[in-house]
C-alpha cells in the first residue's frame, strides 16, 4: 500500500512538472543564481561573482581570478541575507555580501541593496554590492 501511494505521489509530481510552463522553470533557476558585482572606493576595487568564476580588479594591480565557490549562508536566516564566499587556494581570501537597507559607495548618488567586505590576504576592503 505504501509503495502504491508513493508511486502515485511521484507520478503526480512528474505530471505537474511536465505541465508547468517552461518559463516558470527558468525563473526559479535564475532566482537561485549567486551573481554579484561588488565595488568600493578609496582605494578603488571591484569584484565580479558569476558561476564561471570570481574576478578581482583594481587600478593598481593585475586582475586576479578565483574559481567560483558556493557561498555559505547564515544559519536560520533567509538565503539572500548573507553570503560568505571562501575562495579556494592562494591564501585567506573571503568575500562577505550582506543585504542592507541601503549602502552608498561615497562617490555617487547610487544606493545599493548589499554591503560588501572583501578580505584579500592581509588587506580588508569595504564597499557595496548589487545582484547582476
Please describe the structure with a list of short key phrases separated by commas or semicolons.
alpha+beta; 46% strand; disordered N terminus
Question: What string gives the helices and strands in order?
Answer: HHEEEEEEEEE
> Runs with pLDDT <50, length 5+?
1-32
* Distance between the amino and carboxyl termini: 49 Å
The major beta sheet can be summarized as:
9 strands, antiparallel
What is Rg?
A: 20 Å
Instruction: Provide the domain count.
Output: 2
Helix content: 10-25%
Structural class computed from helices and strand pairing = alpha+beta
Spatial order of strands in the largest sheet = 4-3-2-1-9-8-7-6-5
**Amount of beta strand:** over 45%
Mean pLDDT: 79
Q: What shape does the CA trace take?
A: globular
Count helical runs. 2
User: Count of DSSP E strands?
Assistant: 9
Walk me through this protein's architecture.
- 21% of the residues lie in helices and 46% in strands.
- The chain has helices spanning 2-19, 22-31; strands spanning 36-40, 45-50, 53-58, 61-66, 72-73, 82-86, 93-104, 111-120, 123-131.
- It has 2 domains: 1-32; 33-131, no CATH class.
- The chain is globular and about 35 Å long.
- The protein contains 2 helices and 9 strands; from the N terminus they run H-H-E-E-E-E-E-E-E-E-E.
- Strands 4-3-2-1-9-8-7-6-5 form a 9-stranded antiparallel sheet, with no helix packed on it.
- With 132 residues, it is an alpha+beta fold.
